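Subgroup meeting minutes
Present: P.N., E.W., G.H.
Scribe: E.W.

1. P.N. recapped why we're keeping a running log of single-chain structure predictions: easier to compare across weeks, and new members can see raw inputs and outputs side by side.
2. G.H. added today's entry (124 aa).
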Amino acid sequence: MIHNEIWTYRAETGVGHDVNAVDVVGYGVEALDGSIGKVDEATYDAGSAHLVIDTGPWIFGQKVVLPAGIITNVDFEDETVFVNRTKEEIKNAPPFDETTYREPDYNAELSTYYGPEGPGYRDW
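Output recorded in log:
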């Protein structure tokens, strides 16, 4: 089951909601317990908005996909995106695959992981 709220930017973040919204590509990303990398790609599609994060050396240069709904705040001055997950929760998410990360099955897998019944769920 796909949880649509996970794939939608929260209005208070100022990301992806109108023509004045700021593109966050290149911004740093902070988990609850520290930095996890930089935004490599940001999508704004209704029902499937997400960030692709380049983790650099943190998890051996791998990328991860973070659904837009787990973003809690954006500091536009410091160019930092904050997410409501720990590094471990993000590291344990379904693995990123360059060839399939835009597919509905992968979105469904992430929805299950980050959704209310999944191990990556965290109440707001």
